[in-house]
Amino acid sequence: MEITEDGVCIGNFRAYGVREGKYGVALILNDEVCESVGVFTKNKVNGASVPIDKEKLKRGGIRAVIANSGNANCCTKTALEDAKRMCEIAGEKLGIDADSILVASTGIIGKKLDVLKIKELVDKIDREHEGSSNASKAIMTTDTYPKQISVNYRGIKIGGVAKGAGMIAPDLATMLCFLTTNADFGKEELQTALENAVEDSFNMLSVDGDMSTNDTVILMSNRSHECKFEDFCYALNFVARELAKLIAKDGEGATKFLEIEVKNAKSRENARKGARAIISSPLVKTAIFGENPNWGRIVSALGSVIEVDFDKIDIIFSNDKDKTKVVEKGVTGDLEKAHEILKSREIRIVVNLHDGDENAVAYGCDLTYSYVKINAEYN
Amino acid sequence: MEITEDGVCIGNFRAYGVREGKYGVALILNDEVCESVGVFTKNKVNGASVPIDKEKLKRGGIRAVIANSGNANCCTKTALEDAKRMCEIAGEKLGIDADSILVASTGIIGKKLDVLKIKELVDKIDREHEGSSNASKAIMTTDTYPKQISVNYRGIKIGGVAKGAGMIAPDLATMLCFLTTNADFGKEELQTALENAVEDSFNMLSVDGDMSTNDTVILMSNRSHECKFEDFCYALNFVARELAKLIAKDGEGATKFLEIEVKNAKSRENARKGARAIISSPLVKTAIFGENPNWGRIVSALGSVIEVDFDKIDIIFSNDKDKTKVVEKGVTGDLEKAHEILKSREIRIVVNLHDGDENAVAYGCDLTYSYVKINAEYN
């Protein structure tokens, strides 16, 4: 897997972004029509972009995306109209049909979108000044760094930009993610590949257990490279997982990145539920923030969702240098060493259930004073 | 409904408690065998007290409870044995059969219970020095005040003590609660009444969304007063709800008590799910801590669990003096006034879905820096 520097600008994809204070606008664009698919939030309350994009993806003929940060364009009377206006503004700027443009929004819910502000920002986009990192910066909200990646795997190129950083719960995590590829597949195969990739990445990601109204993952292909489907899936899964990790590491207020693996579960569903319960537990997350090897909370979180035979369980804490069993077959291990490991910035916790052969990994972060502060003050 | 001062010591029930540092032991006792029932955590990982009590309640012949704080007696190899030893220690002290004594524990998971400490504390109990408030103080962990109540309703006496204050999620909230009554009903009726009372009180309570391993609600009756079942249920519901509110008000780190009502839902299940989702949302809870009328998070939490027609929704914030519609039929109201209301210590939020005629109320608190601190450091 070769990591490249293109971000979302692989092949003939281009990206633009401008940002002013907490408002930003990004444009991602191709010279030609792209085969495009998407995965969206399961929240029953939706930002206006969600139904609009679903409709447009069904129809096809997509060439571009406009995304804004600072306002979710959700729960206002003019939301649908404002989202359509965003597409028109982008269409005018790019000289293409508004119907060929998808839209995505992130930010506060329930405040009218300032369409004039969007127009003003779009007007400021300098067509000479393209670049994935401008787009990735423009869609940030409480993110502390932009998130992008691109790869080249056997000639398959995939690029992506994403934003977190709160209202992040599994299924799916709150976020916007735009992916581009050259892989030559039709709509059905792209949709299948995207859903599979989301399943083990963004759907295994938790910052705070809150599910957003605007989650959107879009995949656009210019279909310029023939390849094996399994190779494409492999590369797409890699990209989605790396972006999920970048989001987890930048979770609101996070001081520590957590990777939780539940191993040897009876079923895939049990492994997934278990890993997600642990990563979502405020008590696990505050313990990790406190560098406190309180493994009882891990077992309690597990037991709240699946059957657990505690006498069979191993729990292993590790960082990049060291590892220790805090529990081995139900017996407490070396908590001093566990405490040392918890001082790291990146921590991996493996819970081996010894109950089957299904595994799952979830991504998240600790729960800190800063999370409370950011979200007490956000408006 | 007459509020009395007996706590759990109604009629011939007596209670004792001692506390040293973070360890405490409480005894609640009757002269004669009581008809006793219980409701327990749904966590699949259990403190040893849970299976022991379930077994004893099935058999009957209960006269007393011993409860300790500081250690959950959960996930250790000797947990069952140590719980049985607790009953023996209580039996020796009280001069009654250990089999007639229920047991409950709360505190850290995964550390061996110090049985000698339990014995030491029980030995210190002065049989002359009885009183419900001693017992309620002895079972506190991170609680900042003891929780007890008693009532007399048409001659029906019900008393209760309870402890919160973290690992509190609906279904059921983490807690211990011991209830006593004189109402003359058999096991089945008592169980039905208790389950109904728990349904609208402790099962609608959330501090942090974590489900404990040790939740226990015990109801013991000396059967000395004949009464109507509906009167008994009415009084029992009142007592359970008041104790649930006391727990919510004393949630770990809480600065504000929240009562969330979802009104006019299509089904009772929708009303309950909606109210519980709102009360459990970290983003709603941090907004309230910040006195920030960010109602979008309320709608988002609702939409994550039930269908919502936003155009029909009213959201009302109130305190004991004032109220305001922050949303009326999907249109934002006076957020300045809402901000003023959020400065109160006790806040009520009503979400009227205008979609049916089922209502539900949930109880909880805000999410604060102190919650993070308490749980980062707890061991």
What does this molecule look like?
Two copies of one chain form a homodimer. With 379 residues, chain A is an alpha+beta fold. Chain A is 32% helix and 31% strand. In chain A, strands 1, 2, 3, 4, 5, 6, 7, 8 and 10 form a nine-stranded mixed sheet that branches. In chain A, helix 2 runs parallel beside helix 3, helix 5 crosses helix 6 and helix 7 packs across helix 9. The longest helix of chain A is centred in the middle third of the chain and has 21 residues. The mean pLDDT of chain A is 91. At the A-B interface, helix 8, helix 9, strand 14 and helix 11 of A face helix 8, helix 9, strand 14 and helix 11 of B.
List keywords for this structure.
11 helices, homodimer, 379 residues, 31% strand, seven-stranded mixed beta sheet, 2 domains, alpha+beta, L-amino peptidase D-ALA esterase/amidase
Domain count of chain A: 2
Rg on CA atoms of chain A, Å: 21 Å
| Shape summary of chain A | globular
Q: What characterizes the major β-sheet of chain A?
A: 9 strands, mixed
Instruction: Provide the β-strand percentage band of chain A.
Output: 25-35%
Kindly identify the CATH topology of the largest domain in chain A. Answer: L-amino peptidase D-ALA esterase/amidase
Record field, number of beta strands of chain A: 16
Helix-strand topology string of chain A: EEEHEHEHHEEEHEEHEHHHEEEHEEH
Looking at the overall shape, the CATH architecture of the largest domain in chain A is: 4-Layer Sandwich
Q: Could you report the average pLDDT of chain A, rounded to the nearest whole number?
A: 91
| CATH H-level superfamily of the largest domain in chain A | L-amino peptidase D-ALA esterase/amidase
> What would CATH call the class of the largest domain in chain A?
Alpha Beta
Q: Helix proportion of residues of chain A, in percent?
A: 25-40%
Q: Which structural class best describes the helix and strand composition of chain A?
A: alpha+beta
Return residue spans of chain A where pLDDT drops below 50 for at least 5 consecutive residues. none
The chain pair with the largest interface is:
A-B, 63 and 64 residues
Question: In DSSP terms, counting alpha (H) and pi (I) runs of 4 or more, how many helices of chain A?
Answer: 11
